C-alpha cells in the first residue's frame, strides 16, 4: 500500500526546502557584505596639478608633476605609506594640462578629475603660480565622495594617512548659530566637514607646534557640498573680506573662522606639518608640506637629510614604474 498523496507532496518538498536553505546560507553573508560595502564612506585623497610655469616648459621641467607622481606612489603603492583601504587618489586637472601628463598619472594608478577654472581675474596672488589655486574649491562639487583629504602636490609621506579619516576633526559638524551672517554672503549648509592643522610660520618651531588661529590650505579634509561651494563663490564678490595674496587659503580661513558659524576643526598635529625639520619626522609626524627637492632659503631651509630622503624616494618610485619623467 503506497503513501497517501499528501505525504508524497511533503516528500517532494524536502529537496526544494533543502535547496532554499542552502541558497539562504550562501546568500545571507553575501548580502551582508554588499550592504556593508554600500554603507562604508566613500573616501578619497586628492591634489591639484597646475600647469608648468617654468620659462621653457618641457617634459623635464615640471617638478610639481614629478612631485605629484611621488605622492601618487606613496599613497597607492609604497608599502610603507600606501592606503590599506583602497582609497583612490584624485588629481584635479584643467584643460591646459597636457594629455600625456594625465595619461602618465593614470598608468601609475591616479584618478584624473577634469575641472573648469574659476573666474579669478580679481585676485592679486603673492606668486603668479597661485593664481588658479582657487580650483581647489572644485573639490566641493565631487558629490560621489563623502570625504576627501586634500594634499598639496609638494606633500611627502612618512606614514600612511588612512587614519586621518577617523580623526574627530574629520567628522561631520553641525553648523552653529553663534554669529550673524553677512547679508551679501550666501547661505550656510546645515552641516559641514572641514578639518586641518595649524600653520607653522618658521622652521625653528617646537614640536608639537604652537597652535595658531590660522591654517595652511595645503592639507585639509572636507566633505563635498554644493551649498558650501556656492557659499565660497559668494565670497568672490566681497574681495575686501580677505587678503588674496594667499587666495584659497585666506578665503577658507575667512569662511571657517573659529568664532563664526563654521569653525575649522583641528586635526591631530601628527598628521602633517609645514616647514618641517628632521626632528619632526623623528618624533612621528606622518607627512610634511615642503619642497624637499630644494635647499629652501635662509629663513626656511630644508635640511640635507630631508632632501636626501626625497631623492631616494624619487629613485625608488622611478624604479617601481620602470620609466621616469626625465632627470631634473
TrEMBL record:
InterPro entries in alphabetical order: Glyco_trans_8, GNT1/Glycosyltrans_8, Nucleotide-diphossugar_trans
Pfam family of the protein (one): Glyco_transf_8
Coiled coil feature spans: none
Domain of life: Eukaryota
Positions of transmembrane segments: none
SUPFAM superfamilies to which the protein is assigned, alphabetical: Nucleotide-diphospho-sugar transferases
GO MF assignments: glycosyltransferase activity
Secretion signal span: none
PANTHER family: GLYCOGENIN SUBFAMILY MEMBER (PTHR11183)
Protein name as catalogued: Nucleotide-diphospho-sugar transferase
Organism: Lachnellula arida
Lineage: Eukaryota, Fungi, Dikarya, Ascomycota, Pezizomycotina
Amino acid at each position: 500500500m503506497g503513501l497517501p498523496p499528501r505525504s508524497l507532496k511533503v516528500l517532494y518538498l524536502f529537496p526544494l526546502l533543502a535547496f532554499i536553505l542552502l541558497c539562504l546560507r550562501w546568500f545571507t553573508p553575501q548580502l551582508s557584505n554588499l550592504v556593508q560595502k554600500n554603507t562604508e564612506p566613500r573616501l578619497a585623497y586628492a591634489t591639484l596639478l597646475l600647469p608648468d610655469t617654468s620659462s621653457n616648459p618641457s617634459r623635464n621641467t615640471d617638478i610639481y608633476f614629478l612631485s605629484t607622481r611621488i605622492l601618487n606612489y606613496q599613497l597607492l603603492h609604497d608599502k610603507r605609506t600606501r592606503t590599506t583601504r583602497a582609497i583612490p587618489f584624485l588629481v584635479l586637472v584643467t584643460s591646459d594640462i597636457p594629455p600625456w601628463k594625465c595619461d602618465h598619472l593614470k598608468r601609475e594608478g591616479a584618478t584624473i578629475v577634469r575641472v573648469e577654472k574659476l573666474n579669478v581675474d580679481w585676485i592679486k596672488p603673492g606668486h603668479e603660480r597661485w593664481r588658479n589655486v582657487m580650483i581647489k574649491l572644485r573639490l566641493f562639487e565631487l558629490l560621489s565622495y563623502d570625504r576627501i583629504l586634500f594634499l598639496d602636490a609638494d606633500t611627502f609621506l612618512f606614514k600612511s594617512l588612512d587614519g586621518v579619516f577617523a580623526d574627530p576633526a574629520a567628522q561631520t559638524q553641525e553648523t552653529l548659530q553663534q554669529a550673524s551672517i553677512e547679508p551679501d554672503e550666501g547661505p550656510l549648509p546645515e552641516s559641514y566637514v572641514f578639518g586641518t592643522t595649524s600653520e607653522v610660520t618658521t622652521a625653528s618651531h617646537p614640536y608639537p607646534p604652537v597652535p595658531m588661529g590660522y591654517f595652511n590650505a595645503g592639507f585639509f579634509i572636507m566633505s563635498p557640498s554644493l551649498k558650501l561651494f556656492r557659499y565660497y563663490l559668494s565670497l568672490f564678490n566681497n574681495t575686501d573680506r580677505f587678503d588674496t595674496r594667499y587666495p584659497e587659503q585666506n578665503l577658507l580661513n575667512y569662511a571657517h573662522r573659529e568664532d563664526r558659524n563654521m569653525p575649522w576643526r583641528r586635526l591631530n598635529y601628527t598628521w602633517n606639518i609645514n616647514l618641517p625639520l628632521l626632528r619632526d619626522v623623528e618624533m612621528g609626524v606622518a607627512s610634511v608640506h615642503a619642497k624637499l627637492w630644494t635647499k629652501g632659503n635662509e629663513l626656511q631651509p630644508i635640511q640635507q637629510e630631508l632632501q636626501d630622503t626625497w631623492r631616494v624616494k624619487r629613485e625608488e618610485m622611478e624604479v617601481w614604474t620602470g620609466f621616469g619623467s626625465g632627470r631634473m
